[in-house]
Structures are given as structure tokens and as C-alpha cells.
Amino acid sequence: MRIRALVLAASGAVALSALAVPAAQAAQAGPAVTFSNLKVNSGKNIVVGTTSTVTVSATYTVTKPANLSASSFQTGPVLYRGATLGLDSDDLLAGDGPGTCTASSSTVLKCSAKIQFRPKGTDEDGDLISSQAGTWKLGALAVNADDGLTWQGGLGSTHLQRRATLTANASPEPVKKGKTITVTGKLARANWDTNTYAGYSTQPVKLQFRKKGSSTYTTLKTIKTSSTGTLKTTTTATVDGYYRYSFAGTTTTPSVSAAGDFVDVQ
């Protein structure tokens, strides 16, 4: 994974054996530092589509001994899953380069970094696969020029999600009052393996209505998507207004609402 770039940048090594340390503990093989106050993407979920790299910011604090030079090591935030870490693991994500730190005292550094997320098929550096969507733990790594590593986990969590799309089409338009309206649509989400959007099956989706002149949608019913992500249900025409579908989201997929489709009731 790209965390290797951080290690190589610090050490100048051409090869590095896999790191395997307990994720809940610090591995004191490297700089004697600790991490705190790690926040990735301002605490918001990380949502990635099919074609573009998503870059998010991270901020964190490094505490070090007063006699340890800040220029003698590099640091960076890490997303991980599982109880142990390996440098060549699908359960480890990090940015392309180390963070940038500013000393606020002889022992405290305030740092920021960028983390890039690329769907697998976007380019040769793409490394996200669809199975990686979900909850990730947050940690950080420090590396010195002698290949020394300090790893600290348990610094929080985030959700890495596959961007979703949702459509709605209400017909017939116009319609007579009291007649049946059919609302169709589709819920899909990014597939990071193929760089396409694929239907999201068996998910609860709300059919909602907003009366003309109002700014508030109310829920009429909840239905589930088909095996291919499609939606179809009926309702009775009463007054002019907008129909839409709305999806609350899951740990792997963000919430999304379709644009309202206007129906003229005559």
C-alpha cells in the first residue's frame, strides 16, 4: 500500500519487510512519539465515486521528547482494519506522502496531512476495492531514517463509503385527481472494482411527497429495492406536487435522495 512511500521517503531504503504490530498498541521501534487529536475529513464520512481521486485532509498532534528533533522523523495518519497491520495489506490505507508539522512548543507538534482514495480501475495507483467500504479505525505512524517505526492505533474511526445515486420518475403526467400514480426509480452505488455504478439490492427506500408551494417532504411508504436496485410502487393522486425516493444510507453507502419529479393533478 501507499504507506510504503512514507517509510521509503524517510529511510531511503529500496526494500522493507512487512510491518506486523498490534493495532491497539504503539510499536516503540522508532521515534519516541505519541499521537492524539487525530481528525480525518473533519470527522465526516469519506465518500468515493467511480472515476475521480478523493483527497481528504487530516489533522493531528504529535508529542515528542524535547531533545528529539522534529526533522529527524516523519509522520502520517493511517486507516486500518483488524488487530494487526501489514505494509502490504488491503486492511491498511494511507496518503501518498508524510504530514507537515509545525512546533507549538519544544515537545508538541501540530500536524496536517492529505490522504488520497482512488478506485482500483482509475489508474495504476488505484487501490480501493469495493469490499473495503465500511468502518475503518484511525491510527498514525512515525518513521525515522533508520527504518524505525512507531505505530499507534485506537485514535478513532471513520466510514469509507461507495457513492450512491438515486432516481425517481412519477407518471402519468398530468393525472386526474384520485387516479393512480406509478413511481419508478433505481438505487445504485459505485463499484470500485469496475468503475461503474451498480444496483444496490434489497435496501429500504422511502417514497416521499412534497406539495406544490411547500418545502417539506413527507414519507408516504417504505419499499425495498429489487435484486437489481430498481424501485416501483403506486400512490393516489391528490394535489399538485413532487415525488421522490429517499435512502437513509448504510455504513458502506451514504444517504441519497432523488430529485423530486413534479406531477400536475387535474
Summarize the structure in words.
This protein has 2 domains: 3-161, Sandwich (Immunoglobulin-like); 164-263, Immunoglobulin-like (Sandwich), CATH 2.60.40.730. 3% of the residues lie in helices and 46% in strands. It contains 1 helix and 20 strands. The strands form 4 sheets. Strands 2, 4, 5, 8, 9 and 10 form a 6-stranded mixed beta sheet that branches. It is elongated and about 80 Å long. Residues 8-26 have low confidence and may be disordered.
Q: Secondary-structure blueprint of this entry?
A:
Elements: H1 3-11, E1 34-40, E2 46-48, E3 54-63, E4 73-80, E5 92-94, E6 100-103, E7 108-117, E8 134-144, E9 149-152, E10 157-162, E11 164-166, E12 169-171, E13 180-191, E14 196-199, E15 204-211, E16 218-224, E17 230-236, E18 241-247, E19 256-257, E20 261-263
Parallel strand pairs: 2-10
Antiparallel strand pairs: 1-3, 3-7, 4-5, 4-8, 6-7, 8-9, 8-10, 11-13, 12-13, 13-14, 13-17, 15-16, 15-18, 18-19, 18-20
